[in-house]
Design a protein that fits this description.
It is built from 11 helices and 6 strands. The chain is α/β, with parallel strands linked by helices. The two termini are about 35 Å apart.
């Protein structure tokens, strides 16, 4: 994923650090990759690396590779510190296109946006709010002015407003995520790409159903 991001940014030179000496030597073509389980990943990695002009792969002992270790914990769904999350969000902002950053910004929300009460409370925990909102807010976290929902599996889901949610539905149903997915599959994909809004399950089913009805009546 890192190599794909760099290629999208038209980076031509890459320096890679890894704490597995075996993998480093395999990617550097010093060792052969004979494991069937690793071979498919090796093939993908070497194909991506061939698209760079210059590649340097370095081995780093695990005790000196704490940043990568934190990322591995996130991927493995371990609990992580809030300071680490904040750092990752800042990194994400660097790679995220400006247009997408504007979509997720909470600076100019619609007055009816479902996120407003939660955001205002998280910004000022001394606000006088009802018990229901306090309890609900425990499932959310505000990082770098972006609202995230804490999922039961430990992941953070980016919270979307109504307009952004509709765009996500259209993309998942008709765009690169898949061709005309069913409502249940759309819900799974949206959770997989870590997006959230309160009515996402109902909206996925209704969106897919409305598309099917339009097809039956020849509207598409």
């Amino acid at each position: 994923m890192g190599l794909e991001l760099l290629l999208e940014k038209r980076v031509k030179n890459v320096e890679i650090f890894g704490d597995s000496q075996l993998v480093v030597r395999q990617v550097s073509l010093e060792y052969r990759c004979v494991s069937e389980n690793l071979r498919k990943y090796f093939n993908v990695a070497t194909k991506l690396l061939s698209e760079f002009d210059n590649v340097i792969v370095r081995h780093v002992p695990r005790e000196l590779n704490q940043e990568a270790n934190k990322l591995a914990h996130i991927a493995s769904r371990y609990k992580i510190k809030s300071s680490t999350l904040e750092k990752l969000v800042r990194i994400k902002d660097i790679f995220m296109p400006l247009r997408e950053r504007e979509v997720l910004s909470l600076e100019k929300l619609d007055p009816e946006d479902w996120r407003i009460p939660i955001v205002e409370y998280l910004k000022n925990l001394s606000l006088s709010v009802d018990r229901k909102l306090k309890y609900r807010a425990q499932s959310y976290v505000l990082i770098n002015n972006i609202l995230f929902k804490k999922s039961v599996d430990g992941n953070l889901l980016t919270c979307l407003g109504e307009k952004e949610a509709y765009l996500a539905l259209a993309e998942v149903h008709e765009g690169i995520c898949g061709a005309h997915q069913s409502g249940k599959k759309m819900k799974w994909v949206i959770n997989r790409i870590r997006l959230y809004w309160p009515t996402n399950q109902r909206d996925c089913i209704n969106y897919a159903r409305s598309y099917e009805e339009c097809q039956k009546h020849g509207s598409l």
